[in-house]
Amino acid sequence: MGQLDGRIALVTGAARGIGQAIALKLAAEGADLALCDLQADWLAETAGKVTGLGRRAECIAVDVSKAAEVQAAVEKTEKAFGCIDILVNNAGITRDTFLVRMSEEDWDQVLDTNLKGAFLFTKAAARGMMKQRRGAIVNVASIIGLIGNAGQCNYSASKAGVIALTKSVARELASRGVRANAVAPGFIQTRMTDQLSDELKKKMLEAIPLGRFGLPEDVANVVMFLASDASSYVTGQVLTVCGGMVM
Ligand code: NAI
C-alpha cells in the first residue's frame, strides 16, 4: 500500500528535472497525476513513466503565469479526477545577470513564472481543497530565497516571495484542513544548474557539508513527506534540501 493511494496530485513543471522526479515519487506512492508544463507533448516522458507505475496521468499544457490557462488546468484536472488533494508548484525559471544589467523583462519573466504562477495555481486549487476540507500544497522555493545570491536579484526575490506566500496561505487555510509548506533546494543536478561554469560548481561543492550536489530525487522525497499524512501536523514551514549549505 502506498502512502498516497487514491490521492490526486497536480505538479507544475513536470516535464523534466525536479518536477518529473516529484511526479514519479508521488505516483510510486499511489497518487494519480495531473502533469502540467508549457507544452503537453513535452510531458510524454513523465506521463509514460507514471502510467508505467500503474497510475493515471493527465497531460495539461499551461503557462503558469497566465490566469485563464491556470484556471482551465485546474478545471480540467477536477473534471478528469474529481478533485485535487495535492498541489506542487514547481515550475520555475532563471534569468541571471547582475542588477545593473537586469532588464525589466528579466525581472518580470522570473517573477511572473516563479511567484505569480504559484499564486495563481494556489488560488485556483484552493477553492476545491477548502470545500473538501483536505489538501496539501507544496511550493518549490530555493535556498537563494533565504540567503540571496549575486546575479539573481529577480530569482531570489521570487523565491523569497514564494516562501512568504506559503506562510500566508498556511495561516489562511489551516482552519479548512489545508496545509501549505515549501521546500528550499540547494544545488540540485538538473538542466537548470548544468548551465553553471565548472569554476562556480567547484566553489559551491566546497560549501556543501554533505560533500555532494543534490539529486532531483532528494527533493522529491521531501516533497513526498510534505504532501503526505506523515506531515499532518506541519504547515507554514520551509524545509531546506541542500546538503547542509544553509543551516
Ligand atoms: P528545469 O528547468 O529542469 O525544469 C523546469 C520545468 O518548468 C520545465 O519543464 C519547464 O518547461 C517548466 N516551466 C518553465 N516555465 C514554465 C511556465 N511558465 N509554465 C509552465 N511550466 C514552465 O528546472 P529544475 O531545476 O527542475 O527546477 C524546478 C524547480 O526547482 C524550479 O522552481 C527551480 O527554481 C527550483 N530549484 C532548482 C534548483 C536546482 O538546483 N536545480 C535549486 C533550487 C530550486
- Helix content percent band: 40-55%
User: Segments where pLDDT lies below 50 for 5+ residues?
Assistant: none
Average pLDDT value? 97
Distance between the termini: 35 Å
Q: Tell me the β content.
A: 15-25%
Q: How does this model look, in words?
A:
The termini are far apart. With 247 residues, this protein is an alpha/beta fold. The chain is 47% helix and 15% strand. The protein has helices at residues 17-28, 44-52, 67-81, 104-132, 144-147, 153-173, 191-194, 198-206, 216-227; strands at 8-12, 32-37, 57-61, 86-89, 135-140, 178-185, 238-241. Strands 3-2-1-4-5-6-7 form a seven-stranded parallel β-sheet, with helices on both faces. Residues 12-13, 15-19, 37-38, 62-65, 90-93, 113, 140, 142, 185, 187-188, 190-193 line the site of 1,4-dihydronicotinamide adenine dinucleotide. 1,4-dihydronicotinamide adenine dinucleotide (NAI) binds at residues 12-13, 15-19, 37-38, 62-65, 90-93, 113, 140, 142, 185, 187-188, 190-193.
